[in-house]
Design a protein that fits this description.
Elements lengths: L4 H14 L4 H21 L14 H9 L6 H14 L2 H13 L5 H16 L3 H11 L1 H6 L4 H12 L9 H20 L10 H29 L9 H8 L5 H8 L1 H15 L5 H18 L5 H34 L2 H10 L4 H16 L5 H18 L4 H15 L7 H9 L6 H24 L2 H10 L1
Helix pairs in contact: 1-2, 2-16, 3-16, 4-15, 4-16, 5-6, 5-13, 6-7, 6-9, 6-11, 7-9, 7-21, 9-22, 10-11, 10-19, 10-20, 11-20, 11-22, 11-23, 14-15, 16-19, 17-19, 18-19, 18-20, 20-22
Length: 468
């Protein structure tokens, strides 16, 4: 019974999290409780298979977290996203795209998809993108006669693109964790000059699958508009301009609302993909650029700046506190021999590495219903990552599979986080069942993307390998 203590530790922390306790305190509190139990059993002369030497590494682990240059990108990317959100750059961007495509059948849906992609590349926060798009575009789409299911499904699906479109906060955190897991896997295999995988590699790997997903979303909306014109009717451009309140030409609005955010995103991504800057350095460029944009649009005052800094501090503190709790949880898990137990379980699975990967993907998908990507990245990936990578999986491919898997679970009824976010801002006339029905085609698209990646890993690994 005591040899299964690592699995009991994992099960207990899931129960505590589902009970509604704060994530960081749940991780650290459960880990300390089980560590105390292991020490107590050993004091009584009972072999609990617990090695307390692992806990002695916690101060060094804590120091490593606080001095990690890669993780410095988190507060800067959060600052960039919150600045663009609070200064209403997203609103101007959506107005420009709606006027550009709105006169076409399905044009508003295509506009929402493209703006969602750009917001994903600038904010990287699923909740913020879904809520922003829900508040700004859902009333307009419904007023223009769009099917409520198509409108809500498009908003939810494009909102989750923040998981996969770089520069994504999820990819920053996942890249840092996978880098450690990859080095540990190589050391376990006797490779004492291990290769590394960087956040930039993960950004490169996510670019092609992310753009394919965006293209598939647009194709789906266009097909619905073609075969069911009443579900995605064309809007009158003059009415849209009157509704928006824009008095100048379409070119002026595009120049003001579309070009600056795109230039900012190109500067951030281009500097990373071109090798001119690390993700951390590029995040500083993005935050500074977002500040300049907010000032140029005259939408940054002291009250807004205070709100932006408060939100950024709140999100960053949450991320780092969860990371500290996850580090303590991981050390306790390893102290009980959890890595060896997971390795034995995976080795005994039918299908070898394929069977083990399928089980891990299923578990991550189900955990995505109850845990946010931060908890899964910091708790689950350090446990299963070294074992799977030691079995020969490519770290970039594994990272992109996990990211798209989580993106899909955030969309899946009845527990998907994106559905809850949209339900909170959608009008009462839009039922929850309608939202669930609307996301189903997008879930199938994302599952198809996962299958395509499974059979064609080069979709994720080709670009990083080509640019190295």
């Amino acid at each position: 019974m005591l040899e299964f203590m690592p699995l009991m530790l994992f099960a207990v922390v899931c129960v505590v999290l589902m009970a509604g306790y704060p994530v960081a305190l749940s991780l650290s509190g459960t880990a300390l409780g089980f560590a105390g139990l292991g020490l107590g059993l050993q004091a009584l002369g009972i072999d609990a298979h617990f090695d307390p030497i692992f806990l002695a590494a916690f101060p060094n682990r804590l120091y490593g977290i606080m001095t990690n240059q890669t993780l410095l990108a988190v507060p800067l990317f959060v600052l960039m996203g919150v600045l663009l959100e609070k200064s209403k750059v997203a609103e101007t961007l959506l107005d420009a795209m709606a006027l550009l495509f709105g006169a076409l059948r399905g044009g508003l849906g295509i506009s929402v998809t493209l703006v969602g992609m750009l917001l994903a590349a600038s904010t990287g926060i699923v909740g913020a993108t879904v809520v922003t798009m829900g508040l700004l575009s859902l009333p307009t789409m419904l007023k223009r006669g769009y099917s409520p299911a198509l409108a809500t499904g498009t908003i939810c699906a494009t909102g989750t693109l923040g998981q996969i479109i770089p520069p994504s906060i999820a990819l920053v955190l996942l890249g840092d964790v996978l880098s450690s897991a990859y080095q540990q896997a190589q050391l376990d295999m006797g490779i004492f000059s291990p290769k590394t995988v960087s956040v930039g590699d993960l950004f490169l790997g996510a670019l092609v699958p992310g753009l394919i997903l965006v293209a598939l979303y647009i194709v789906y909306v266009a097909l619905i508009a073609w075969f069911r014109p009443q579900a995605a009717p064309a809007a009158d451009r003059q009415e849209l301009m009157a509704e928006i309140g824009h008095r100048g030409s379409l070119f002026t609005l595009l120049l003001k609302g579309l070009i600056p955010p795109i230039l900012l995103i190109v500067a951030v991504l281009g500097s990373i993909l071109g090798g001119f800057a690390t993700p951390t350095e590029a995040s500083a460029v993005g935050a500074f650029g977002a500040l300049i944009l907010a000032l140029a649009y005259r939408r940054l005052d002291i009250a807004t700046l205070r709100d932006v800094l408060r939100t950024t501090t709140h999100v960053t503190s949450m991320v780092f506190l969860i990371l500290i709790g996850a580090a303590l949880f991981s050390l306790t898990f390893r102290a009980y021999g959890g890595e060896e137990l997971v390795g034995h379980l995976f080795d005994g699975m039918p299908g070898g590495v394929v069977g083990a990967t399928l089980i891990v993907m299923l578990v991550i998908f189900l955990l995505g219903f109850i845990l946010d990507f931060i908890e899964i990245t910091f708790v689950v990936v350090p446990i299963v990552g070294p074992v799977l990578l030691a079995m020969g999986l490519d770290p970039i491919w594994l990272g992109i599979m996990i990211a798209i898997n989580l993106q899909t679970s955030f969309l899946t009824p009845p527990f998907g986080f994106a559905l809850f976010y949209l339900r909170g801002v959608a009008p009462a006339s839009v039922s929850t069942a309608t939202i669930y029905r609307g996301v189903l085609p997008f879930i199938l698209i994302q599952l198809g993307m996962l299958v395509a990646l499974a059979f064609f890993p080069g979709l994720a690994t080709w670009l990083p390998g080509w640019l190295q």
